[in-house]
Amino acid sequence: MLEGRILGLDIGDATIGVALSDIMGITAQGIKTIKRESKKKDIEEIKKIIIENNVNLIVSGLPKNMNGTIGPQAEKVTKFCDLLKEETGLEVDYWDERLSTVSAEKLLIEGSVSRKSRKKVVDKLAAVIILQNYLDFKKY
Questions:
Q1: Which residues contact 59 (CB under 8 A, 6 or more apart)?
Q2: Integer distance in angstroms from the first to the last C-alpha of the chain?
Q3: Quick check: 6 pLDDT over 60?
Q4: Helix/strand/coil percent split, the chain, to 5
Q5: Which residue in 62, 68, 114, 123 is deepest, having the highest Cβ count within 10 Å?
Q6: Residue 2 forms beta bridges with which residues?
């Protein structure tokens, strides 16, 4: 396993959910939701998190279409990640995130979280689900 932490991202048009692995790469914790302003500001915010947490790998959810193809949203995500790679020098792995936001929403509903509160944390939780699935997969 690499030395350092893994950053998980759920990149949307309005927000970016951010999760971080523990140092051993076993568990994922949600750390924040970035409200999107501009690519430059978004990347600066992510770079700050990377430096503060000794991150050495980024895992981004890739929103594929239900039939597995790459659509316009996935293209936006890969373009953003290409910039992120360029700016940070870190590798970006992609994880098929189909239904991660749906799963996050379902977990919050089951936990009786109000609609207003769900809206604030759903992207962060989706990032946790993406990163945790990636970590679990890499163990085997």
A1: 6, 7, 8, 9, 92, 93, 94, 95, 130, 131, 134
A2: 12
A3: yes
A4: 45, 25, 30
A5: 123
A6: none
| Structure-token pair, residue 87 | 């700016």
Cβ-proximal residues to 57 (8 Å cutoff; 6+ apart), any chain: 2, 4, 6, 7, 90, 91, 93
List, in sequence order, every residue forming a beta bridge with 33; answer none if it has no partner: 17
pTM metric for this prediction: 0.88
Distances (CA, A) of 89 to 38, 62, 67, 115: 20, 20, 32, 38
Please report, for the chain, the start and end positions of each structural domain, with discontinuous segments joined by +: 5-138
More reliable by pLDDT, 99 or 56: 56
CATH of domain 5-138: 3.30.420.140
